[in-house]
Design brief:
Elements lengths: L1 H9 L3 H38 L5 E5 L2 H4 L10 H8 L4 E16 L2 E10 L1 H8 L5 E4 L9 E4 H7 L6 E7 L5 E12 L4 H4 L2 E5 H8 L7 E6 L5 H11 L5 E5 H4 L1 H39 L1 H9 L4 H36 L2 E2 L2 H9 L5 E2 L5 H18 L1 H8 L3 H5 L2
Parallel strand pairs: 3-8, 5-7
Antiparallel strand pairs: 1-9, 1-10, 2-3, 2-6, 2-9, 4-7, 5-8, 6-7, 11-12
Helix pairs in contact: 1-13, 2-11, 2-13, 2-15, 11-15, 13-15, 13-16
């Protein structure tokens, strides 16, 4: 009965109901947009960094991460391949052979990271072919090299020019090679864009004299929240393989610390936003109560108990909150999806700050449904909690005063 009465009361004054629902509707959209933009920004920053470097999880020989030495390379065993292929959280994995070398052209020389890769597998992880700005992507049989855009610019090289690589190979062997540039890649992480090069695995093994070895295997996952459980499972299953399993937080702690700090700031900003939303919803609630004070006085005067009246009014507010929240979530999703597919590139001072911290100045919101639901719940809780004020207000009503108001 309360629900039926509350629903009918809602639509007796369509203007008042629409104003209240609109306040909650826009509050939900605002809360969702703020959350998904911030989460999307850092999700992209983390994904861009790990996909072109270490992966969300990396498997390497024990001690490799401390020394980064080519001598700490290891062979990929059938057991390890089976373990990785059987993990349902793993979306892709790719082996790498990495080493620091000198890249030289004319009088210019720069220390860089050269990475040997399986072109097809690498593309499934980092989408490297989509980052090409000129030239062609590598194939397994190539004797050519791809350079990052910043590195090519520093060495004043372009496609079909030649670059010389010099360094130390496996067990002290001399590493030297001359390679034609097949493509130039623009990486979203400015620091990486200045010092990376890629060779097909066979050519890199020949350069570094490693034979059938890798320095690491990068693993990508579909859900970062399951990383630790996956890591523990891989550690358990690879006992006796002489390998170490690390997550991106362990390998790039400064990025994780930056992420955690920004998430802490976002909590504060969200609190301020929720406070503003609370005042907005409370204002519409006060308007609704004051407009109906005469009505409440008459109902109490003819014998309606205050507890019944309060229950009906709170039910009304709850129904309006639910309607406003659901409409807000439904309206926010296509808006977020549009900006997910058409991300906003930010320029000016904000873009310069973003590049200073080594991430691409692009706003690409997250479309994880959990963010929509959580923000909807928070605003719904605020609206229903504020409606408790109606109970206090109704219990303080004096029938004669309310009728004459």
């Amino acid at each position: 009965m309360y629900l039926k009465l509350a629903w009918r009361n809602m639509w007796r004054s369509r203007r008042r109901t629409l104003i209240t629902i609109s306040a909650i509707f826009f509050a939900v959209i605002l809360a969702i947009l703020m959350r998904v933009i911030v989460i999307g920004l850092f999700d992209k920053m983390i994904a861009d960094t790990v996909s072109t470097s270490c992966g969300y999880i990396q498997i390497h020989h024990i001690g490799y991460w401390e020394s980064k030495s080519i001598d700490s390379s290891f062979e990929q065993t059938p057991k390890l391949v089976t373990i990785l292929n059987n993990q349902k959280e793993v979306t892709a994995w790719v082996p790498h052979l990495e080493s620091f070398v000198l890249a030289s052209s004319g009088e210019r020389t720069k220390g860089i990271m050269v990475t040997g890769l399986d072109p097809e597998k690498e593309n499934s992880v980092s989408k490297l072919s989509q980052k090409l700005i000129v030239g062609k992507y590598l194939s397994d049989s190539d004797k050519s090299i791809m350079l990052a855009e910043g590195l090519a610019g520093y060495l004043k090289l372009k496609v079909n020019d030649t670059v010389v690589l010099l360094g130390q190979g496996y067990h002290g062997n001399m590493a030297a090679g001359k390679y034609m540039i097949k493509g130039i890649v623009r990486l979203p992480i400015p620091e990486m864009n200045k010092g990376m090069a890629w060779l097909p695995m066979a050519s890199c093994r020949e350069l570094l004299s490693t034979g059938e070895k890798y320095t690491s295997i990068s693993v990508m996952v579909d859900n970062r929240d399951k990383l630790e459980a996956l890591r523990e499972r891989i550690i358990e299953q690879t006992k006796g393989e002489s390998v170490e399993v690390m997550t991106w937080q362990e390998m790039i702690p400064e990025l994780d610390q930056f992420f955690q700090a920004k998430m802490g700031q976002n909590v504060i900003m969200s609190g301020i936003l929720y406070l503003v939303i609370s005042f907005g919803i409370f204002g519409t609630l006060l308007m609704m109560l004051n407009e109906r004070m005469h009505e409440f006085g008459i109902l109490i005067a003819i014998g309606m108990k205050k507890r019944i009246l309060a229950a009906i009014v709170v039910t009304e507010m709850a129904l309006m909150s639910i309607v406003g929240t659901l409409l807000g979530i439904v309206a926010a999703f296509p808006l977020v999806l549009y900006f997910r597919l058409h991300p906003i590139r930010v320029g000016g001072s904000w873009g310069a700050i973003a590049e200073k911290f080594n991430f691409e100045p692009v706003l690409q919101p997250s479309i994880a449904i959990s963010h929509f639901i959580i923000q909807g719940y928070v605003v719904l809780f605020i609206a229903i909690a504020l409606s408790m004020y109606a109970i206090v207000k109704i219990y303080k009503i004096k029938a004669i005063t309310a009728i004459n108001s």
